[in-house]
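Why does residue order matter? Because the sequence determines the fold. Keep that principle in mind as you read this record.
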Amino acid sequence: MHNFEYRHGELYCEDVPVSRIAKEVGTPCYIYSHATLIRHIRAYDQAFKSIPHVMAFAMKANSNLAILRLMAKEGSGVDIVSGGELFRALKAGVPPAKIVFAGVGKSAEEIRDALNADILMFNVESPAEIQAIHDVASSMKKKARIALRINPDIDPKTHPYISTGLKKSKFGIAADRALEEFKQAASLTHVEVVGVHAHIGSQLTEVSPFVESLKKVLGLVEALKGQGINIRYLNIGGGLGITYSDEKPPLPRDLADAISPQLKGLDITLVMEPGRVIVGNAGILVTKALYEKVGEAKRFIIVDAAMNDLIRPSLYSAYHDIRPVSEVIMQRARHTVDVVGPVCESGDFLAKDRMLPEMKPGDLLAVMSAGAYGFVMASNYNSRPRVPEVLVKDGEVHVIRARETYDDLIRGEAVPAFLG
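Structure:
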Protein backbone atom coordinates (compact mmCIF):
# COMPACT_ATOMS: atom_id res chain seq x y z
CA MET A 1 0.00 0.00 0.00
CA HIS A 2 1.79 3.13 -1.24
CA ASN A 3 -1.18 5.55 -1.28
CA PHE A 4 -1.55 5.23 -5.06
CA GLU A 5 -4.73 3.24 -5.69
CA TYR A 6 -7.79 3.17 -7.90
CA ARG A 7 -10.99 4.65 -6.49
CA HIS A 8 -14.21 5.34 -8.37
CA GLY A 9 -12.53 4.19 -11.58
CA GLU A 10 -9.44 6.37 -11.46
CA LEU A 11 -6.00 6.48 -9.86
CA TYR A 12 -5.66 8.52 -6.69
CA CYS A 13 -2.66 9.81 -4.76
CA GLU A 14 -3.90 9.68 -1.17
CA ASP A 15 -7.28 11.47 -1.39
CA VAL A 16 -6.65 13.39 -4.61
CA PRO A 17 -7.39 12.15 -8.16
CA VAL A 18 -4.19 12.04 -10.21
CA SER A 19 -6.13 13.43 -13.19
CA ARG A 20 -6.98 16.55 -11.16
CA ILE A 21 -3.32 17.15 -10.35
CA ALA A 22 -2.37 16.66 -14.00
CA LYS A 23 -5.01 19.18 -15.03
CA GLU A 24 -3.73 21.73 -12.49
CA VAL A 25 0.03 21.47 -13.15
CA GLY A 26 0.15 19.89 -16.61
CA THR A 27 2.09 16.88 -17.82
CA PRO A 28 4.59 15.43 -17.45
CA CYS A 29 4.79 15.86 -13.66
CA TYR A 30 6.13 14.04 -10.62
CA ILE A 31 3.70 13.38 -7.76
CA TYR A 32 4.79 12.29 -4.26
CA SER A 33 2.71 10.97 -1.38
CA HIS A 34 3.52 12.58 1.98
CA ALA A 35 1.89 9.73 3.91
CA THR A 36 4.05 7.15 2.13
CA LEU A 37 7.25 9.08 2.78
CA ILE A 38 6.42 9.39 6.48
CA ARG A 39 5.52 5.72 6.79
CA HIS A 40 8.72 4.59 5.12
CA ILE A 41 11.12 6.78 7.09
CA ARG A 42 9.47 5.79 10.37
CA ALA A 43 9.46 2.09 9.51
CA TYR A 44 13.21 2.20 8.88
CA ASP A 45 13.92 4.19 12.03
CA GLN A 46 11.71 1.98 14.22
CA ALA A 47 13.27 -1.23 12.87
CA PHE A 48 16.60 -0.20 14.44
CA LYS A 49 15.25 1.38 17.63
CA SER A 50 17.12 -1.13 19.83
CA ILE A 51 20.51 -0.01 18.44
CA PRO A 52 22.13 3.45 18.72
CA HIS A 53 21.88 4.72 15.14
CA VAL A 54 21.96 7.70 12.81
CA MET A 55 19.71 7.78 9.76
CA ALA A 56 21.33 9.61 6.84
CA PHE A 57 18.89 9.71 3.91
CA ALA A 58 20.78 9.22 0.62
CA MET A 59 19.71 12.45 -0.98
CA LYS A 60 21.07 11.42 -4.39
CA ALA A 61 17.79 9.47 -4.64
CA ASN A 62 15.67 12.63 -4.34
CA SER A 63 17.08 16.03 -3.38
CA ASN A 64 13.99 18.27 -3.49
CA LEU A 65 14.14 20.76 -0.60
CA ALA A 66 10.67 19.83 0.63
CA ILE A 67 11.58 16.12 0.74
CA LEU A 68 14.81 16.92 2.61
CA ARG A 69 12.92 19.13 5.06
CA LEU A 70 10.45 16.32 5.70
CA MET A 71 13.36 13.94 6.41
CA ALA A 72 14.98 16.44 8.79
CA LYS A 73 11.71 16.94 10.69
CA GLU A 74 11.52 13.16 11.12
CA GLY A 75 14.97 13.20 12.72
CA SER A 76 16.93 11.97 9.71
CA GLY A 77 20.24 13.34 8.52
CA VAL A 78 21.51 13.01 4.96
CA ASP A 79 24.23 11.27 2.98
CA ILE A 80 25.69 13.74 0.46
CA VAL A 81 28.13 13.36 -2.44
CA SER A 82 28.75 16.95 -3.55
CA GLY A 83 29.03 20.55 -2.43
CA GLY A 84 25.70 21.23 -4.08
CA GLU A 85 24.04 18.54 -1.99
CA LEU A 86 25.65 20.04 1.14
CA PHE A 87 24.17 23.43 0.17
CA ARG A 88 20.73 21.87 -0.33
CA ALA A 89 20.89 19.95 2.94
CA LEU A 90 21.76 23.04 4.95
CA LYS A 91 19.08 25.10 3.17
CA ALA A 92 16.54 22.40 4.10
CA GLY A 93 17.51 22.62 7.77
CA VAL A 94 19.33 19.29 8.08
CA PRO A 95 21.57 19.41 11.22
CA PRO A 96 25.26 19.35 10.18
CA ALA A 97 25.87 16.80 12.95
CA LYS A 98 23.80 14.35 10.88
CA ILE A 99 25.46 14.96 7.51
CA VAL A 100 27.83 12.35 6.07
CA PHE A 101 29.88 13.28 2.99
CA ALA A 102 30.57 10.36 0.62
CA GLY A 103 31.88 10.14 -2.95
CA VAL A 104 35.22 9.37 -4.59
CA GLY A 105 36.08 12.85 -5.89
CA LYS A 106 35.67 15.62 -3.31
CA SER A 107 37.31 18.92 -4.29
CA ALA A 108 39.29 21.10 -1.87
CA GLU A 109 36.47 23.67 -1.96
CA GLU A 110 33.85 21.03 -1.10
CA ILE A 111 36.01 19.72 1.76
CA ARG A 112 36.46 23.26 3.07
CA ASP A 113 32.71 23.98 2.98
CA ALA A 114 31.95 20.73 4.80
CA LEU A 115 34.54 21.47 7.50
CA ASN A 116 33.13 24.96 7.96
CA ALA A 117 29.66 23.44 8.36
CA ASP A 118 31.10 20.95 10.92
CA ILE A 119 29.47 17.87 9.39
CA LEU A 120 29.48 14.55 11.21
CA MET A 121 32.14 12.89 9.02
CA PHE A 122 33.62 12.27 5.59
CA ASN A 123 33.43 8.80 4.08
CA VAL A 124 36.84 8.54 2.39
CA GLU A 125 37.62 6.28 -0.54
CA SER A 126 41.39 6.42 -1.15
CA PRO A 127 44.74 7.31 0.46
CA ALA A 128 44.98 10.34 -1.85
CA GLU A 129 41.64 11.62 -0.58
CA ILE A 130 42.68 11.12 3.06
CA GLN A 131 45.75 13.25 2.39
CA ALA A 132 43.68 15.91 0.61
CA ILE A 133 41.25 16.16 3.52
CA HIS A 134 44.17 16.33 5.96
CA ASP A 135 45.81 19.14 3.97
CA VAL A 136 42.64 21.24 3.80
CA ALA A 137 41.89 20.66 7.51
CA SER A 138 45.48 21.59 8.37
CA SER A 139 45.24 24.86 6.43
CA MET A 140 42.05 25.67 8.37
CA LYS A 141 43.51 24.57 11.72
CA LYS A 142 40.69 22.06 12.06
CA LYS A 143 40.45 18.31 12.55
CA ALA A 144 38.35 16.35 10.05
CA ARG A 145 36.36 13.33 11.25
CA ILE A 146 36.63 10.50 8.72
CA ALA A 147 35.38 6.98 8.12
CA LEU A 148 37.30 4.82 5.65
CA ARG A 149 35.11 3.13 3.08
CA ILE A 150 36.04 -0.51 2.73
CA ASN A 151 35.41 -2.51 -0.42
CA PRO A 152 34.54 -5.94 1.04
CA ASP A 153 34.37 -7.66 -2.40
CA ILE A 154 30.80 -8.83 -1.81
CA ASP A 155 28.46 -9.55 -4.74
CA PRO A 156 25.24 -7.62 -4.00
CA LYS A 157 23.38 -9.52 -6.76
CA THR A 158 22.02 -6.41 -8.43
CA HIS A 159 22.54 -4.50 -11.71
CA PRO A 160 26.25 -4.09 -12.55
CA TYR A 161 25.89 -0.29 -12.78
CA ILE A 162 24.68 -0.08 -9.18
CA SER A 163 27.03 -2.69 -7.69
CA THR A 164 29.68 -0.89 -5.66
CA GLY A 165 31.29 -3.50 -3.40
CA LEU A 166 33.24 -5.67 -5.84
CA LYS A 167 37.02 -5.55 -6.39
CA LYS A 168 36.61 -4.00 -9.83
CA SER A 169 34.50 -1.11 -8.47
CA LYS A 170 35.87 2.45 -8.28
CA PHE A 171 34.56 2.72 -4.72
CA GLY A 172 36.32 2.09 -1.43
CA ILE A 173 39.65 0.70 -0.22
CA ALA A 174 40.40 -3.00 -0.76
CA ALA A 175 39.72 -5.03 2.37
CA ASP A 176 43.23 -6.49 2.41
CA ARG A 177 44.71 -2.97 2.42
CA ALA A 178 42.31 -1.56 5.00
CA LEU A 179 44.29 -2.13 8.20
CA GLU A 180 47.39 -0.44 6.79
CA GLU A 181 45.39 2.53 5.47
CA PHE A 182 43.62 2.98 8.82
CA LYS A 183 46.98 3.03 10.64
CA GLN A 184 48.35 5.58 8.18
CA ALA A 185 45.27 7.79 8.54
CA ALA A 186 45.40 7.57 12.34
CA SER A 187 48.96 8.92 12.25
CA LEU A 188 47.89 12.18 10.59
CA THR A 189 47.47 15.19 12.84
CA HIS A 190 44.45 16.83 11.22
CA VAL A 191 42.14 13.87 10.71
CA GLU A 192 40.34 11.83 13.34
CA VAL A 193 39.45 8.27 12.35
CA VAL A 194 35.98 7.68 13.79
CA GLY A 195 34.33 5.11 11.55
CA VAL A 196 34.26 2.29 9.03
CA HIS A 197 31.97 2.49 6.00
CA ALA A 198 30.84 -0.24 3.59
CA HIS A 199 28.16 0.24 0.93
CA ILE A 200 27.96 -2.68 -1.49
CA GLY A 201 25.28 -1.62 -3.96
CA SER A 202 21.75 -0.49 -4.63
CA GLN A 203 18.39 -2.23 -5.14
CA LEU A 204 19.42 -5.28 -3.08
CA THR A 205 16.67 -7.88 -2.78
CA GLU A 206 18.38 -10.18 -0.25
CA VAL A 207 19.66 -9.63 3.28
CA SER A 208 22.58 -12.07 2.98
CA PRO A 209 25.00 -9.65 1.21
CA PHE A 210 24.49 -7.14 4.06
CA VAL A 211 25.25 -9.84 6.64
CA GLU A 212 28.32 -11.07 4.78
CA SER A 213 29.67 -7.53 4.42
CA LEU A 214 29.02 -6.75 8.09
CA LYS A 215 30.97 -9.83 9.21
CA LYS A 216 34.01 -8.64 7.28
CA VAL A 217 33.70 -5.12 8.63
CA LEU A 218 33.32 -6.27 12.24
CA GLY A 219 36.45 -8.38 11.86
CA LEU A 220 38.27 -5.23 10.76
CA VAL A 221 36.84 -3.24 13.70
CA GLU A 222 38.22 -5.86 16.09
CA ALA A 223 41.65 -5.75 14.42
CA LEU A 224 41.66 -1.95 14.59
CA LYS A 225 40.88 -2.09 18.29
CA GLY A 226 44.00 -4.19 18.75
CA GLN A 227 45.97 -1.39 17.09
CA GLY A 228 44.52 1.21 19.48
CA ILE A 229 42.08 2.63 16.89
CA ASN A 230 38.63 2.68 18.47
CA ILE A 231 35.82 2.91 15.93
CA ARG A 232 32.77 4.90 17.08
CA TYR A 233 30.64 4.67 13.92
CA LEU A 234 29.86 1.70 11.70
CA ASN A 235 28.25 2.80 8.42
CA ILE A 236 26.48 0.00 6.53
CA GLY A 237 25.36 2.30 3.71
CA GLY A 238 21.98 1.86 2.08
CA GLY A 239 20.86 -0.25 -0.84
CA LEU A 240 17.72 -2.01 0.38
CA GLY A 241 15.58 -2.66 -2.70
CA ILE A 242 11.96 -1.90 -3.52
CA THR A 243 9.30 -3.57 -5.66
CA TYR A 244 9.31 -2.32 -9.25
CA SER A 245 7.84 -5.44 -10.81
CA ASP A 246 7.72 -8.80 -9.02
CA GLU A 247 10.71 -8.37 -6.66
CA LYS A 248 10.13 -9.29 -3.04
CA PRO A 249 12.84 -7.32 -1.23
CA PRO A 250 13.31 -7.63 2.53
CA LEU A 251 11.69 -5.07 4.80
CA PRO A 252 13.76 -2.79 7.04
CA ARG A 253 12.82 -4.96 10.03
CA ASP A 254 14.17 -8.03 8.20
CA LEU A 255 17.50 -6.26 7.78
CA ALA A 256 17.46 -5.17 11.42
CA ASP A 257 16.67 -8.71 12.60
CA ALA A 258 19.57 -10.07 10.53
CA ILE A 259 22.28 -7.65 11.65
CA SER A 260 21.24 -6.53 15.16
CA PRO A 261 22.52 -9.68 16.93
CA GLN A 262 26.00 -9.05 15.52
CA LEU A 263 26.08 -5.54 17.02
CA LYS A 264 24.96 -6.43 20.55
CA GLY A 265 27.42 -5.34 23.21
CA LEU A 266 29.48 -3.19 20.86
CA ASP A 267 30.02 0.42 21.91
CA ILE A 268 29.31 1.65 18.42
CA THR A 269 26.73 3.81 16.61
CA LEU A 270 25.23 2.40 13.43
CA VAL A 271 24.97 4.80 10.47
CA MET A 272 22.52 3.92 7.68
CA GLU A 273 22.01 5.61 4.33
CA PRO A 274 18.62 4.50 2.95
CA GLY A 275 17.46 6.30 -0.17
CA ARG A 276 15.41 4.39 -2.75
CA VAL A 277 13.62 2.35 -0.06
CA ILE A 278 12.26 5.60 1.43
CA VAL A 279 11.25 7.55 -1.69
CA GLY A 280 11.06 5.06 -4.59
CA ASN A 281 7.48 3.88 -4.21
CA ALA A 282 6.36 7.24 -2.79
CA GLY A 283 6.37 8.88 -6.20
CA ILE A 284 5.01 8.53 -9.73
CA LEU A 285 5.61 10.26 -13.06
CA VAL A 286 2.41 11.20 -14.89
CA THR A 287 2.53 11.52 -18.66
CA LYS A 288 0.01 12.15 -21.44
CA ALA A 289 -0.42 10.09 -24.59
CA LEU A 290 0.21 12.10 -27.75
CA TYR A 291 -0.26 9.47 -30.46
CA GLU A 292 -0.27 5.78 -31.19
CA LYS A 293 1.97 4.69 -34.05
CA VAL A 294 1.72 1.29 -35.69
CA GLY A 295 4.96 0.39 -37.48
CA GLU A 296 5.78 -2.66 -39.55
CA ALA A 297 7.54 -4.44 -36.70
CA LYS A 298 6.41 -2.55 -33.58
CA ARG A 299 3.54 -0.63 -32.09
CA PHE A 300 4.33 2.55 -30.14
CA ILE A 301 2.57 4.78 -27.64
CA ILE A 302 4.21 8.20 -27.93
CA VAL A 303 3.89 10.20 -24.72
CA ASP A 304 5.00 13.66 -23.57
CA ALA A 305 7.50 12.33 -20.96
CA ALA A 306 10.93 11.34 -22.18
CA MET A 307 14.33 9.99 -21.17
CA ASN A 308 15.33 13.47 -20.00
CA ASP A 309 12.50 13.28 -17.42
CA LEU A 310 13.11 9.67 -16.31
CA ILE A 311 16.35 8.15 -17.56
CA ARG A 312 16.35 4.87 -15.59
CA PRO A 313 14.77 2.75 -18.38
CA SER A 314 17.27 4.09 -20.95
CA LEU A 315 20.24 3.92 -18.59
CA TYR A 316 19.68 0.58 -16.84
CA SER A 317 16.88 -1.00 -18.90
CA ALA A 318 15.03 -0.47 -15.61
CA TYR A 319 11.44 -1.69 -15.31
CA HIS A 320 8.68 0.66 -14.15
CA ASP A 321 5.08 -0.49 -14.02
CA ILE A 322 2.89 1.72 -16.24
CA ARG A 323 -0.81 2.11 -15.54
CA PRO A 324 -3.62 4.07 -17.18
CA VAL A 325 -4.86 6.77 -14.80
CA SER A 326 -8.45 5.90 -15.76
CA GLU A 327 -9.66 2.34 -15.21
CA VAL A 328 -12.11 2.74 -18.12
CA ILE A 329 -9.13 2.56 -20.48
CA MET A 330 -8.44 -0.97 -19.21
CA GLN A 331 -11.53 -2.21 -21.07
CA ARG A 332 -10.00 -1.41 -24.45
CA ALA A 333 -8.17 -3.88 -26.69
CA ARG A 334 -4.63 -4.59 -25.50
CA HIS A 335 -1.46 -4.69 -27.56
CA THR A 336 2.25 -5.21 -27.02
CA VAL A 337 3.77 -1.73 -27.30
CA ASP A 338 6.84 0.36 -26.62
CA VAL A 339 6.11 3.51 -24.60
CA VAL A 340 8.40 6.18 -26.05
CA GLY A 341 8.99 9.90 -25.68
CA PRO A 342 9.61 12.82 -28.08
CA VAL A 343 13.40 13.01 -27.54
CA CYS A 344 15.54 12.45 -30.65
CA GLU A 345 17.25 9.23 -29.47
CA SER A 346 16.48 5.58 -30.15
CA GLY A 347 17.10 5.02 -26.44
CA ASP A 348 14.23 7.32 -25.48
CA PHE A 349 11.74 4.89 -23.98
CA LEU A 350 9.89 4.35 -20.70
CA ALA A 351 8.92 0.75 -21.44
CA LYS A 352 9.49 -1.87 -24.11
CA ASP A 353 7.29 -4.77 -25.20
CA ARG A 354 4.64 -3.95 -22.62
CA MET A 355 1.06 -5.19 -22.83
CA LEU A 356 -1.14 -2.07 -22.56
CA PRO A 357 -4.61 -1.02 -23.71
CA GLU A 358 -5.05 1.26 -26.72
CA MET A 359 -4.33 4.87 -25.77
CA LYS A 360 -5.99 7.90 -27.33
CA PRO A 361 -4.46 11.39 -27.47
CA GLY A 362 -4.85 13.04 -24.07
CA ASP A 363 -5.14 9.80 -22.08
CA LEU A 364 -2.97 9.79 -18.95
CA LEU A 365 -0.48 7.13 -17.87
CA ALA A 366 1.21 6.78 -14.50
CA VAL A 367 4.81 5.54 -14.43
CA MET A 368 5.00 3.91 -11.00
CA SER A 369 7.84 3.72 -8.45
CA ALA A 370 9.45 6.89 -9.83
CA GLY A 371 10.21 8.70 -6.56
CA ALA A 372 13.89 7.68 -6.52
CA TYR A 373 16.40 8.55 -9.24
CA GLY A 374 13.61 10.20 -11.21
CA PHE A 375 13.56 13.99 -11.28
CA VAL A 376 16.95 14.10 -9.59
CA MET A 377 18.54 12.63 -12.76
CA ALA A 378 16.50 14.78 -15.16
CA SER A 379 18.15 16.99 -17.78
CA ASN A 380 17.28 19.66 -20.33
CA TYR A 381 18.30 17.53 -23.29
CA ASN A 382 16.61 18.68 -26.51
CA SER A 383 15.97 21.96 -24.65
CA ARG A 384 13.07 20.44 -22.77
CA PRO A 385 12.12 22.31 -19.57
CA ARG A 386 12.25 20.12 -16.48
CA VAL A 387 8.88 19.11 -15.08
CA PRO A 388 7.14 20.14 -11.84
CA GLU A 389 7.20 18.15 -8.62
CA VAL A 390 4.11 17.93 -6.44
CA LEU A 391 3.65 16.75 -2.84
CA VAL A 392 0.19 15.57 -1.74
CA LYS A 393 -0.75 15.77 1.93
CA ASP A 394 -4.16 15.57 3.62
CA GLY A 395 -6.05 16.16 0.39
CA GLU A 396 -3.99 19.22 -0.53
CA VAL A 397 -1.67 19.57 -3.53
CA HIS A 398 1.60 21.43 -2.93
CA VAL A 399 3.83 22.34 -5.88
CA ILE A 400 7.32 21.84 -4.46
CA ARG A 401 9.07 22.64 -7.74
CA ALA A 402 7.56 24.74 -10.51
CA ARG A 403 7.79 23.68 -14.14
CA GLU A 404 10.75 25.33 -15.83
CA THR A 405 10.12 27.96 -18.49
CA TYR A 406 11.94 28.55 -21.77
CA ASP A 407 13.68 31.49 -20.10
CA ASP A 408 15.02 29.08 -17.47
CA LEU A 409 16.63 27.09 -20.28
CA ILE A 410 18.94 29.97 -21.29
CA ARG A 411 19.58 31.43 -17.83
CA GLY A 412 23.30 32.03 -17.43
CA GLU A 413 24.06 31.80 -21.14
CA ALA A 414 25.51 34.78 -23.03
CA VAL A 415 26.27 35.64 -26.64
CA PRO A 416 29.64 37.42 -26.83
CA ALA A 417 29.76 40.87 -28.45
CA PHE A 418 31.75 39.66 -31.47
CA LEU A 419 28.73 37.57 -32.48
CA GLY A 420 26.39 40.54 -32.21
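The chain has two domains: 4-32+280-409, 34-279.
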